[in-house]
Structure formats: structure tokens, C-alpha cells
Amino acid sequence: MASTTDTMEVGGSDADVQPPDNEDNWFSLIERLKARAVIPVIGPELLDVTVQLSDGASKTGSFYRLVSEALCTHYGIAPVSGESRHAWDLHAAVAAVIAEKERSTEKVRRTTARIVNSLGQTTTQFPTLSVLAKIDAFDFFLSLTCDDLLWRALAPAHLATFSPRAATGSVVDIPAPRPGQRVVFQIFGAARSLTDFAVHEEDALEYLFALQSEGSRRLPTALSELRKRDLLFIGCNLPDWMGRSLLRLVNDDRLYAKSTQEFFSDSAADPSLAAFFSRFSPNTMSFEAQAGAFVDELAKRWSATSQGTTQSSPARSEPPMPDAVGPTAFISYASENNQAARCLADALRTVGFSDVWLDRKKLIAGDDWSLRIDEAIQACDFFLPLLSREADKRREGVYWAEWDEALMRSRRIPDEFIIPVGIDQAPPSKTAYPRISGSKFIEFFSRDLVHAPGGVLSDEAKAEMRERARRFLQR
Hints:
Blueprint: E1 7-11, H1 22-34, E2 38-42, E3 48-52, E4 58-62, H2 63-75, H3 89-101, H4 105-122, E5 123-125, H5 127-133, E6 140-143, H6 149-154, E7 158-161, E8 183-186, H7 201-218, H8 220-228, E9 230-234, H9 240-249, H10 271-280, E10 286-288, H11 291-304, H12 307-310, E11 328-332, H13 338-350, E12 355-357, H14 369-379, E13 382-387, H15 389-393, H16 398-410, E14 421-422, H17 434-437, E15 450-451, H18 459-473
Parallel strand pairs: 1-9, 1-10, 2-6, 2-9, 6-8, 7-8, 11-12, 11-13, 13-14, 14-15
Antiparallel strand pairs: 3-4, 3-5
């Protein structure tokens, strides 16, 4: 499958990378911003802050350098310098504490959480994040840090956090993008959880591995957005291993085989990573600026662009969804019942469902549709087959395969997963649908069927579906 993702990193250049043509690069970036096709990836070097000290004085600097210093002071070791190109300040400090003091990772993680949360509460200014937040071309932000400063700068915004430790049935995905809503996704967890965030390189590796192995099932929306949009890395200072792993994760194709442009560079990055991209990603684009200066220039150029204030978000195929994160649903139906399916999807969103897959409605150009549909069936929280005269008459149809896939998955789920919905005027019954009831799908009639003529839920049916959504989130 061809990927449509481009990647941009700001910083400077490496000896192995040819000097960029900045104006051409800026033109490309602004054009992609106009299309609302860019996701900024926020790293620790972007968090320049001012914190209020207990004695009333204030201190300005890199947030994670301050965290690193506080962590080293707490454990009585010398501050770890920020000179290493192979580890972030936090990762380097945690590694030093574990090595010198022989403390367990979990103990250091709890201490780190306390420091991050305490410093975050006393942070009074985060100027670069505030400038970035004013650029209205962004609606989805990928954060590589464990603090909540970006979320505070964007307020109001939805905050989602990935957790490899969370129960497999838990909601870890982002809500589907909607006009006017901004989302922050913390890929390495959040310190507010106290015990579930990455504090060193091995942690980060585990998070990336879990994303690779569980992403299609546990966060299909986030992964889909990352793979179909361009990525703008700002202040990430990625170590070689992390850069390669992360970029491969968010691309469907091999990097050298991409037909679209690839954007990546960082003057402070591991030189091996810069060399890797110069050799194997020939369309790499870079910007000659440090993170803070880059954001200032980006805001200036975007403000000067007439599209910056007049371009509206592209029309989406799905209507807006509620802010609350709820269960997801897959509606499977015969093509003749398209209108009823759309009506039912709208109703589900009003009763607490966060996202509804309407078969090919969610596919994008270049997708392997059969693979994407299979992934969606494996990832959804509820599967709703639409029972109708039209579906029963057809001897062949894609929905039969979808129903079969859902039945197989339901064998692995001890509670409710398949919710058959009759959409004809008469309530669904075995006699009304002889082909369906004469096959393996007779199982549908032993379940709690919902009657929604034309896809319209009665008040009673809406209450039942709302209760299903509520019970699911309380598991």
C-alpha cells in the first residue's frame, strides 16, 4: 500500500545531508498546512518554560533539563549533561540514577512522575508552545513527552495517551478528527498516571513495539491519521534507533520506496540517523532553524498567508461526533441499505459511541480495502450487522464475509460484541430472513436484536444503546 505521509524535522543540518533550499521547503510546508494535512510531532527540546520557585523567584530553561536536574539532586548524583546525542535529558538522568544508585525502574518512575507533575504545576509560561497553539492549521498533535504542557497551551483540547500496560479492552484511541476540535496524543504515556509512562530508552522501545503490534486493534484512528498525513517534527532531537523505529511505524511503505516527499533533519540529532535518511530517504527536506525560532517563523508565515485565516477544514464524510470518548462500532450492510446505515451511525454518535465505521466510507485512496476492513472488524468494540430483505435476498456480497469475520472474533469475546439490527418495518425474525437463518448466521437470532426501521432508533432503543456504551466504558 502506498503511504501518503511526509515527515519534516526542524533543527539544522548534518554533514551528510545536503544544505536545504529553505524557501522551497517553506513553500511545500505552507501548502500542506493549507490542506490541513500536517501533524506536528512535539519533542522535549520545544519545551522552554518559566517555573515559579518556592522562594518566589522564577527560573527559565528547558523543562526536561529542569526535571533532569531535580531528579539527580533527589538521588544525590551529579547532574547529567545534555551533551549526549544518544539520549534525551530525562532518559539520560534516569539511566544514571539506575546505574549509580541501583534503584528499580518503577521507583525512579514514581519519583520522576512527582517531579514532572510538580514542576508542571509551577510552570507559568511556555512561550513556544503558546505560539504553536495559535497556528490554526493543526488539529492533531503527537507528543513525545509525558507532561501536560502542550495540552494546557491548546486548551480546550482532547487528550489521549497510549499505554501498553492498559487492559486490552480499554479505550486508548483518539476520537475521529472533527472540525474545531484539537487532539493531543501522548505516544509514550503521561506522568499524571504515576506508573505508566516511558522514563528511559528501554521503556520507549517497549512503547513503540506495543504500538507496532497492537496499533491496528487498539488505536486505529490515531494510526490511520499518522499514516495518511505529513509529520512535522519539532524539537524532537531523536536518537538514531528511535527515529528509525518511529518513522517506520507511521509509514505503510519502506522509506526508500515512498513516492511522496520525506522531511527530516535535526542539527542535534544522532549523526547516524541523519546519514540513514540521507542515504535511504532521497526526498528528505530540512529547515535551518532551532526549534523555537522555527515555530516563530512558521507562525509568521502562516499568519501572512491568506489561507491562514480563510481556509476551512476540508469537508469530512462523517458528521461531527460528540466530545466524549466512547465505544466504537462497525456497521455491516448490503449496499441497498446505505441510507439506513448512515442514519443508524448518526444515532449511535448521539448516544455515546465515539466512532462508527461505515464500510468503505472510511477508506482513503491507496488503501487495501479488504485489509483495512478486516483490521476495523478486529479493532471495533461492537459489530452491527443490518438484517434486511435486501441482505437476505443476495447470494453473494461483501457483508457476508464481514459477518463471518465478526462471528469468528465473537468466539474470543466472552461478552456482547455482535448486535444484530433489523431495519425493515417488521421486527427481525427467522421466518422473515430464510437465507440468513438457514446458515451459520442463525446465531444472530439468539442474541439481543435491535429493531430500527430504516435505521431509526426508537427512544427505547436509544436508551438501550446508551446503556451499552456506558457499561462498556465501566469495564
